[in-house]
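During the reporting period the student researcher (J.K.) took over the structure-prediction task from the postdoctoral fellow and processed the backlog of single-chain submissions. One of the processed entries is reproduced below for the supervisory committee.
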Amino acid sequence: MRATSLRKGENAPLSLAPVLLAVSVQGPASDVSALLLGAGGKVRDDHDLVFYNHPVQDGVSVAGSVVTADLGRVPADVDRVAVVVSVDPGQPGGVFTRAPVLTITQPGGTELSFTAPDFTAGETVVVLAELYRRDVGWKVRAVGQGYASGLAGLATDYGVDVEPPAPAPVPVRTPRASGAVVDLAKVERVSPALVAPARQASRALAVRGIGQRRAAVYLLLDHGWNMEELYESFAVQAFAERVLALSANLDDDGTVPVLFSSGDQPFLEDIRLDNYRGRIDQLHTQVDWGWGNVAAAMRHAVGHYRESGAQDPAFMVTQVGDEPWDKAEVRSLLQNTASLGVFWLFVGFGRGKLAFYKNLNASTGAKFPNVAFYDASKNPGAVPDERFYEGLVEGFAAWMRG
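J.K. obtained the following C-alpha cells:
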C-alpha cells in the first residue's frame, strides 16, 4: 500500500480502531514515548508520560519505537496524545539533525507518513505528531516541533515533572585583546563610503561597554509581497549597508551572510565590503515573492552558524515587515537557540503588523533573554545614524554584558 505523506501542520482523520505510530531515526540512539494530555494541553499527572519504564496507560502503550493508541479505550478526559522521540540520555552530546520519520497505520485505513524538516538548532527532543479529538472522532496532526532544551523544555510545555539536564555549553563571548581598538582601516581602503556609519556603530558599541567584543553578524530579510515597494525604493539596500558597517566593528572578515525569507527554501548569499553597492537589489531579483517565512530563514541561519564552527556568538539581525504565519514555530526557535550563543534582533519596518515581535518579552509568560525588538519606522533610511545604531545594539549589548 502506498503511503500518503503529510506535511508539517497537516492532519488526517482516523477511525476508532487501534492506531500504530512507528518512529524511524537516522542518527543518535533514541527513546520513543507518548503523553496523554487534558483539554488544557497538560498531563493530568505524571502517569500520563508513557515510556519504557511505564509502557501502558489508559489505552496507550509504547513498545520499542512504536506507540499504539486504542482510541476507543482512551478516557474522555484525555483530549490529545502526543508522540515524542528523544535522544537517549546515555549518549552525551547527541542531537537530531536528520528528522525522524513517522509511519501511521490503522486496520483498513490509508497508511500515512510524516517527515519533519531537518533540525539545525541542537534539538534533543521532538514532538512528531498529535492524536486529537475532533467532534466524536479522532484526527492525527503532523507536528515536528523540536526542543534544544531537552526534556526540561518538553516538561514546561506539557507539565511533566522531570529532572532538567545540565545546560548546553554556550559559545564563548570572546573579547578583543585588552586595550585593542577597532581597526577601520580596511573599511577606509575597500569601502570608504561606509566609514562614517561604521564609526557611528563603533561609538554605539563603546558607549554600551561592548566595544571590544566580537560576534558573527547575520542579516535576514523579509521578502514577502508587502516589502516590494521598500526593495524598489532601495530602502532595504540602505538598511543592509548599515548592518554591514556595524559588522565591520564586530567581525573583521568584512562579510555578512544574508538570507531572504520567502517560502520554505531561504535564499542564502552574502554582502561584503568589496561588493555591497547594489548587492541587495541584485540578489533579491533571484528570489520569488512570497509570504516571508521567517521561521525557515531562522532555521537556515542557525544551521549555517553551527556549521561554520564559529566560537563567537551570533548576532541575527532579522528584518520583519509583518507578523509571522507560524508564531509557535518562531517561539520554539527562540527558545531552542537561547543556549547556543545566538541573539535575535527583530527590526521592524514596512507597513505590516508587528505586534507579535514587539510583545515577545512584554507578557507575563515565557521570556526570551536572547531577543530584542527595534522599530525602525516605515523607512529606516530617515533615522539618523546615531539613533539608528543605538536602537540596533541596545538589546544585544545588554545580552553580551549579561
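The committee noted the following: The longest helix spans residues 385-401.
J.K. will present the remaining backlog at the next meeting.
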